[in-house]
Here is the input.
Amino acid sequence: MAYDLLIRNARICDGSGGPSFRGDVAIRGSRIAAVGEIEADAAETIDANGLVLAPGFIDPHTHYDAQLVWDGLAQPALEHGVTTIVPGNCSLSLAPLRPEHRDLLGATFRKIEEMPENAFNAGIDWSWQTFGEYVETIRGGLGINVAPLVGHSLIRLWVMGEDARERSATDTEVAAMQDALRECLDAGAIGMSGSWVDIDHENRPVPARRAAWEELDALCAVLGERKAILQMVPEFWDPDLLCARIDLMADLSRAHGISTTFSPLFDSNAAPELVGIALDRIRLQTAHGARVVPQMQTRPIDLSFDLGAPMSTFATLPSWWAMTLLPKDEKLARLRDPAEREKLKSEMDSFMMPMSLDLDFAKAFIKRPGPASQALAGRFIGDIARERGCHIAEAIIDIALADDLETSFGLDALGHSNMAKIAGFLAEPLIGIGAGDGGAHVTNFSTYGDTGFLFSEYVRGQHAMSVEKAVQKLTHDIADLWGITDRGLIKPGYAADMVLFDPDSIDRGPEIAVDDLPAPGFRYIRRAKGVSQVFVNGRRVYDRDDGYTDARAGAIVPQAA
Amino acid sequence: MTTTVAIPARRAFILPDPEDTWESVASRQLPDMPLEEAVNLLKSWNIFLVFRPGGGAFTPSDVMFVAPPPAA
Here is the structure.
């Protein structure tokens, strides 16, 4: 046989953004061997029946670092057509890490990425220290490609120990960090992530935020040696701060010849002019030779919260935040204490909106009722409080207490929900699609299905972009930014990462709770709609009718040197 | 900081030195103003640092504005 796999009669959207065309794609081994009208035989032939065949989608902002240790498929990313994921964002990877810092890093990761402690502890065996050892830990079970970032906070901890949380680095330590970064890049890291925003489980800045400019500049010099990327989290809610950060990233980009990207960039009623201001600044910096690409998510910001675990929803309500951090028995006592309840009520009457979100707890609804609140499912807290003649804070607390803190409350459309406006932003060439956060915030919102939503909302719903352009934004544009040279196009010689989907029905399914964590508990996910088959490095890894296959052909991207 | 192209900032800012305090930044950036007044002015331009969750201390990676917000 000339080929291992032949996909016939497809509408090929090759990732370039050019017009789609009817044709066949032949695969030999892990690579695309031919594209066009192909007469030769293959060991397996699939009739695409005119469905769209596109390069596999790339998700550039995820936190699957922990999940990949127990789930090499990164479910449900693959079934949404995502064939390459980038974990390690926001200054946080899980390596390199010395044994004495595992508790510290674990608590920080769980706090920022909102992962249940029991699941994290059950799933992570900490069998690695170096970045290369982490890569080897996950490599064997990968059904999806992984382009991992190394976190700046981890590099600081590796070199400076706990001093990384306290102070700037000496020249000797900066040089050691440069060497550590080189080792991580050699072991397969695609770049480095940092943060100007994140705080740890003790409300202290993450180690990366203790870095003086000279340290970040020196590390970017190493990225420049390898043409690797820098990912940052800026103060995305404030136009002046965001523009200052864009300027700083632009300086690093020009000085070291690197690409930079930041996430998130989102629209909100609280700062409706922000995206336009940021975009003007990016245009200016781009015109002066910098590459600074913001990542924007396709979906509106919907959150869930419960009182059983710490969560960022309460970031600007200090009494609520402190309460959620308590052990369960202390939390229950505080929620029942009349004086504490008064304090919580008062705080909910007047608080600063966190991160420009349009947060109104009266609009919270009972999303996942516990045993005592089944009859309240779907109802709004504001309505329940009125019926009970109580404050909305009391309604939340009393419902949670009756359910032994198991109630999950929903808050929809907190921002980024003006779909017509978002459509214009997503069509803008300087704005990348990303910031999805897959693998994180597992009980707070479902981060999956942004790819399907791009097609259902913006291609079919608003006609804001063509299928070809949407595919380009999910594939080639991301590969180009991230320096992934052999993925993101359907082209001979490229990796055979592909997704076959129905352009008339591809979408995200409803948010559902599943219990597939490595310890008791749940997470929210979305199943895919309209995705027929997904191929990773030439192997079919997902089929709509049969589910996931046994193929584990995922690779570390780029391959370790 | 590395600057390879001179583009005026939307709003003038600095990154504090690791050993900086409000007073040291104020005396450096607003040298013609009485120190207490300069510190208060500097803080008024950087309320997000003064009232940030977790205590109000700034780090060397923080943006600190040394000019008022641009006119709307």
About this structure: The helical segments of chain B are 22-29, 35-45, 47-50.
